[in-house]
Amino acid sequence: MNSLNILKDKKEILSYLYLFISILGAILPMMANIEFAKEYGNSFDINNFISLANANPAAQSISRDLLVGASAIFIWIVNESKKLNMKNMWVVYIGTFLIAFAFSAPFFLFLRERRIIELEKN
User: Fold this and answer.
1) What's the pLDDT tens digit per position in 11-39?
2) How far is Cα 55 from Cα 61, in angstroms, rounded to an integer?
3) What is the distance between the alpha carbons of residues 66 and 59, in angstroms, rounded to a whole number?
4) Least packed by Cβ within 10 Å: which of 5, 7, 37, 111?
5) Rg, C-alpha atoms of the chain
6) Domain ranges of the chain
């Protein structure tokens, strides 16, 4: 049995796995953002956040990796959602900027799997 295809015929399970990951993708970055606000003041200073995200080569690497990767995936999300005529995409678009990309990308995959299941039933 090919381990890469383990969930191929279990789209329901796969969709809920994506949903679980999206919940983690909302909670874990939010915890760090709350810690940032506690440490650097009660408001969320975006300029300070960006400065710290680029404070050293390791932080720059992660920040740039996320920026480039998230940009490419976001473009794919917009195109794929239009191809599949997906609903509720506003949650993904707004969630990308207000929650975290770690939330919105797996949440999109959840919505996409649910849409594919719906299309396959017709």
Assistant:
1) 889 999 999 999 999 999 999 989 998 89
2) 10
3) 11
4) 5
5) 17
6) 12-121
Cα gap 93→91, rounded to integer Å: 6
Q: At what angle do helices 11-40 and 46-53 cross, to 10 degrees?
A: 110
Using pLDDT thresholds of 50, 70 and 90, give the confidence band for residue 45: confident
CA proximity to 119, closest of 11, 6, 7: 11
Question: pTM higher than 0.90, yes or no?
Answer: no
Nearest CA to 97 out of 46, 55, 57, 54 is that of 46
Crossing angle of the two packed helices 57-83 and 101-121, in degrees rounded to 10: 20
Give dist(CA 28, CA 42) in Å, integer: 19
Alpha carbon 64 to chain centroid, angstroms: 16
